[in-house]
């Protein structure tokens, strides 16, 4: 893919792909394995991921032979958080849920991006209203580096056609009606016709705002 090759040529070795091993991200991994192998693969292990995510992570390691740098939360931060608020604080309030995401996701992502000049994501425009204005190449204000979104124009159908045509390993939860997969306690299957992100933090009733925090803008569910 030309954009990936451009990103690699311009920024390697200071460029990473932050891979969640969801459908978009395994497509991106396959594309990187074909044409941009100098891009470093990083992933965040929040400590609360479903087993199926670890399974596809290992399947991709075997398939592509690319090293995957795994970033975990700071143990002392997690210990202090659960000591004060319990293991399932994310159910107590939006504030506590965001605190959990900050410690288990944002802080490890900051470490993964530290010293880098650019990162690659599998974000697609049609995933959320807040992503309508996103471009294929952006300045990531939150992290102060360049951000490449090579799949920005892809549809969900494009993603699945690519996975099928190229026999790309994917998370088994997608076959159980999980279009968007995060931590196990914060992800559920959705019903036919529901918004693809309705399975994330579904107990929050804040005007449909489902903020993951990994990308600069909050994710607003499409109505
Ligand atoms: S998705 Fe849930 S378990 Fe995972 S970091 Fe966020 S609040 Fe914590």
From TrEMBL:
<dbReference type="GO" id="GO:0070814">
    <property type="term" value="P:hydrogen sulfide biosynthetic process"/>
</dbReference>
<dbReference type="GO" id="GO:0019379">
    <property type="term" value="P:sulfate assimilation, phosphoadenylyl sulfate reduction by phosphoadenylyl-sulfate reductase (thioredoxin)"/>
</dbReference>
<dbReference type="GO" id="GO:0019344">
    <property type="term" value="P:cysteine biosynthetic process"/>
</dbReference>
<keyword id="KW-0408">Iron</keyword>
<dbReference type="InterPro" id="IPR002500">
    <property type="entry name" value="PAPS_reduct_dom"/>
</dbReference>
<keyword id="KW-0963">Cytoplasm</keyword>
<dbReference type="InterPro" id="IPR014729">
    <property type="entry name" value="Rossmann-like_a/b/a_fold"/>
</dbReference>
<feature type="binding site">
    <location>
        <position position="186"/>
    </location>
    <ligand>
        <name>[4Fe-4S] cluster</name>
    </ligand>
</feature>
<keyword id="KW-0411">Iron-sulfur</keyword>
<comment type="pathway">
    <text>Sulfur metabolism; hydrogen sulfide biosynthesis; sulfite from sulfate.</text>
</comment>
<feature type="active site" description="Nucleophile; cysteine thiosulfonate intermediate">
    <location>
        <position position="212"/>
    </location>
</feature>
<dbReference type="GO" id="GO:0046872">
    <property type="term" value="F:metal ion binding"/>
</dbReference>
<dbReference type="GO" id="GO:0051539">
    <property type="term" value="F:4 iron, 4 sulfur cluster binding"/>
</dbReference>
<comment type="similarity">
    <text>Belongs to the PAPS reductase family. CysH subfamily.</text>
</comment>
<dbReference type="Pfam" id="PF01507">
    <property type="entry name" value="PAPS_reduct"/>
</dbReference>
<dbReference type="GO" id="GO:0005737">
    <property type="term" value="C:cytoplasm"/>
</dbReference>
<keyword id="KW-0560">Oxidoreductase</keyword>
<keyword id="KW-0479">Metal-binding</keyword>
<dbReference type="InterPro" id="IPR011798">
    <property type="entry name" value="APS_reductase"/>
</dbReference>
<feature type="domain" description="Phosphoadenosine phosphosulphate reductase">
    <location>
        <begin position="15"/>
        <end position="189"/>
    </location>
</feature>
<feature type="binding site">
    <location>
        <position position="100"/>
    </location>
    <ligand>
        <name>[4Fe-4S] cluster</name>
    </ligand>
</feature>
<feature type="binding site">
    <location>
        <position position="101"/>
    </location>
    <ligand>
        <name>[4Fe-4S] cluster</name>
    </ligand>
</feature>
<protein>
    <recommendedName>
        <fullName>Adenosine 5'-phosphosulfate reductase</fullName>
        <ecNumber>1.8.4.10</ecNumber>
    </recommendedName>
</protein>
<dbReference type="InterPro" id="IPR004511">
    <property type="entry name" value="PAPS/APS_Rdtase"/>
</dbReference>
<comment type="function">
    <text>Catalyzes the formation of sulfite from adenosine 5'-phosphosulfate (APS) using thioredoxin as an electron donor.</text>
</comment>
<dbReference type="GO" id="GO:0043866">
    <property type="term" value="F:adenylyl-sulfate reductase (thioredoxin) activity"/>
</dbReference>
<dbReference type="GO" id="GO:0004604">
    <property type="term" value="F:phosphoadenylyl-sulfate reductase (thioredoxin) activity"/>
</dbReference>
<feature type="binding site">
    <location>
        <position position="183"/>
    </location>
    <ligand>
        <name>[4Fe-4S] cluster</name>
    </ligand>
</feature>
